[in-house]
Amino acid sequence: MAKSSKDRMRRAFLLVAMMLAAAPLQAAEKLPPVQPRLVARLDGLIATAANGHIVIQARGAVDSGGWRAARLRPLKATPADAHTIVVEFVAVPPAPSHAVIQGLLPITANATMTLRRGIFSVRAVSGSNEITTQILK
């Protein structure tokens, strides 16, 4: 009788040990990466030409804390934008499971692009507005 209770205790111990060993594997499962989204608002845009390149600087705001990797993503030009470089102001939002500060917070991004002949302006697009500026020389 004592042997059967020892066997049950061993089985219970092995079961608990296997469950504890499997816990890190479950925790290691990663959520799919969060894709960049348009920032909420664009507040300022500056474009300057230097040494055959255009340096674009954008200022804006996001809806909450935790946004990262802000950048200016180039878009394909349409015939209406023949003399304009068009960029989207995007950033990676926080994961849905993260606790973040709610409210408008500032965010900035810079980009350097090759200056092509016939380009005179830059247009940046955000979630709620867009700004077009001439290239300063």
Structure, described:
- With 137 residues, this protein is α+β, with helices and mostly antiparallel strands.
- It folds into 2 domains: 1-30; 37-136, no CATH class.
- It is 20% helix and 47% strand.
- A hairpin with a 4-residue loop joins strand 7 and strand 8.
- The N and C termini lie far apart (93 Å).
Secondary structure elements and pairings:
Elements: H1 2-28, E1 37-38, E2 41-50, E3 53-64, E4 68-74, E5 84-92, E6 102-114, E7 121-125, E8 130-136
Parallel strand pairs: 2-8, 5-7
Antiparallel strand pairs: 1-5, 2-3, 3-6, 4-5, 7-8
Key words describing this protein structure:
alpha+beta; 1 helix; eight-stranded mixed beta sheet; 137 residues; single chain
